[in-house]
Design brief:
Blueprint: H1 3-12, H2 15-30, E1 46-59, E2 66-72, E3 77-83, E4 96-104, E5 111-113, E6 116-119
Length: 124
């Protein structure tokens, strides 16, 4: 892609598209060799992704509560669910997080249940 084409795309892109591209570039720079963009993950495979937490919610239940987050990296969104948890220290909206687990798509959205996770340093 030549410089004119890149400049034209940047000029005509929406703010959301530009923000998405910036976020993707940021995570590509942070990524280790094993991480992959959320949008390129295949259902049923073991994945390792890095993204920003967009939302945190608790699904209350007397028997088994669950903590759910939406993780976004600019290429896609994955829902991460920890069963039996109401809170995990450090898991807050806006935080950068790396998760490792099996991607399931039994519903209309990709989900990772009970993954290993690693909090990333807060950036100012």
């Amino acid at each position: 892609m030549n410089a004119i084409t890149r400049a034209y795309r940047k000029f005509t892109a929406t703010k959301a598209e530009l923000d998405s591209k910036d976020l993707q570039d940021q995570f590509v720079a942070l990524a280790e060799s094993q991480t992959q963009p959320i949008g390129q993950c295949q259902p049923g495979s073991q994945v390792e992704v890095v993204g920003n937490i967009r939302s945190v919610s608790v699904q209350p239940s007397l028997k088994s509560p669950s903590l759910e987050i939406e993780l976004y990296d600019g290429s896609g969104v994955v829902t991460v669910i920890w069963m039996g948890r109401r809170v995990i220290p450090g898991i807050v909206a806006g935080r950068t997080l790396k998760v490792c687990g099996r991607l399931t798509c039994n519903t209309d959205r990709p989900i990772i249940f009970n993954p290993r996770y690693e909090l990333r340093p807060l950036t100012r």
